[in-house]
Amino acid sequence: MTNQKTYTHPSEPDFRGRIERTVQASSPDWPDAPATAGKPNVVLIVLDDTGFAHLGCYGSTIETPNIDRLAGNGLRFTGFHTTALCSSSRACLLTGRNHHAVGMRAVSNMDTGYPNMRGAVTKSAATMAEVLRDNGVSTFAAGKWHLAPMAECTAAGPFHNWPLQRGFNRYYGFLQGETDQFHPEITHDNHFVDQPKTAAEGYHVSEDIVDKSIGFIRDTVSIVPEKPFFLYLAFGAMHAPHQAPQDYLDKYRGKFDGGWDKAREEWFQRQKEMGLFPDETQLAPRNPGVKPWDELSENERKFAARLQEAFAAMLDHTDAQIGRLVTFLEELGLMENTLFMLVSDNGASQEGGPTGVFDEMKYFNLMAEDVGKAVTRLDDIGGPQSHSNIPWGWAQAGNTPLKWYKQNTHGGGVRDPFIVHWPEGIGRPGELRGQFCHAVDIAPTVYDVMGIEAPDVVAGVPQMPMHGASILDAFKDGKASPARSVQYFEMGGDRGLWLDGWKAVTHHARGTPFEDDKWELYHLDRDFSEYHDLAEKEPERLERMVARWWEEAERHGVLPLDDRGAFDLFRASRRPGMPTSRSRFVYYPPVSHIVSDACPPVFKGWRMVAEIEHDGGDGALIARGSINSGYALFIRQGRLHFDYNCFHDHTAVSASEKLSSGKHEVGALIERQEDGSGKVTLTVDGKNVGETRIPQLLLLISSLGMDLGRSLSPVCDDYAPPFVYPGRIARVIFEMPKARHEAAAGNADRAAVRAAMARQ
Q1: Are residues 664 and 522 in the same domain?
Q2: Which of 167, 239, 268, 389 could form a disulfide with 352 if both were Cys (CB 3.0 to 4.6 A apart)?
């Protein structure tokens, strides 16, 4: 008797074939090919802290021939905008939603306890990688991530905000907001790895991430050539530290001795000749705190020029790596049908302060740069021995013709370069596009190119609406209308609103009442540089726009407004359950590298002990930070040593006798004194074997984390990395003191941060 019954399968209840008792009587079915099959590849390159004028094709004299070639055969946008900060702009780029709405008001290092600042992108805003992956696209990320709470970026996880868990098939790069370019903290997929070669062997992280990007693409096109790929390549450049190979540094010697005033004028004229803005555009006045170049001392000029040389060398070197990627794609015949986009995440950085800094962590430690001391080490700038950042004057030059900087909602913070190269999908190459667009418009544009509808549900999670809109029409038509009519801005209390070609904006002084802020009004379609404030001439328009800002703020979850400085925000983000919330830390080496935000908080002093079985060999026991700032407990020539590095000012103490073989407890006690100094006691088996005094304990040690049993980045010149300890380390224990001097120190710190931020 013939069986007439058909069956369903529990994993595919909607199976479109036919299932009967035997395969002979059944009929198969396979899923439809993804709609993206045969669609263009997508490459999105993100530069960090690169101002509107920094690229050669946007007016600078810094050499960027490969980027310029992409622009010459593609499109340059002059109306592209970002959020004024790195994590928040990246959240917009990858989701197509506004940063407050997805939980990334500022940087991912913070969670203030409000939905607008969780330090991670909400699951209700799927990334472009998640959507493209679900539509059959191979997805790769390389370089800077900075979209996960940094306390979660350890080998213990959780991993749900790491690149692989947010849609990328492969990842290679660094999870922090910055890294040492010669000694980076490298993550490969879901685990930490060592850099493939040393700085002495010619390592640089920009070269490394491009190598890995090429490898990811090569694997895919070799095995599944019909499958498009999406590469998200986020360089550490041009975020500090500004570091480049020596030949690039040598190339720019003396190139900026004329100063930032001369450079701004020259770059401004070049921009005019390129037609980047209307002829009537005026160069914005110097930002407050920027001195005329001629009023600087000789040492200040030498120092500032050398810092700019390091910046230029790093940008030139980055351009060369982009050129290597382009050459690879051309050799494989892939460039013609690859949508290649290059953006910056915000304007040039103000975090070097008025003079610039040899070591950028000085800015976050509220320490002024000693220029007289810095000029004695000019040749170290840009190399492994420095973590430099440029002064305000050079930052504003990079933002020519605009005012203010990164972190601000005026043009210098939010108007950035945007280059599109896509031979098969754009109009006439080499043209300019002046339409207003924003980082939130990138993802909808990619979906439009790929023929994808933004999904309503991803991984079972209902999705919030897209806030951006496709700008594909502008790729083809220079006269196309802007895709949207309104966009708000907010960063650290600075606010702004673009509405139909007009912009209302205010620069907020931290710690002052928001109601005291003075709003400015500019007709951007006629006033590119925000030079002519029309607030008094058009009070009614300004009033309407400010009211509209509050409407947009409510709609997108901007509130509450929060103008706290960096130190206050970091303190506000510490809560029970975080890796740094304990007063006692016990590690069982070997353990993976520990990122800065998960390290024991030692600014109040600390005790650390390593329980070892000594075999007579030398090596690092505990190492935190880098050659620029940090501390290390290590054994060298058989003796125990401790070194505290305060921006190349070393405080060292050593045991007088060698360690005998066998089990020992070795460590150091660092006690914070009322004047901010530290008393150091070096111990072996509970006995005092050395004492010294640290003149000043740092609030923030380093952006680089900690290693146990080795030192991947050297803290001092007494050893060479990785300086692996050959003996056994059973345990490492950190203990923090009770809140000694905390109230007085905390109040002073908060006041200092507010004052420092208000001056910028």
Answers
A1: no
A2: 389
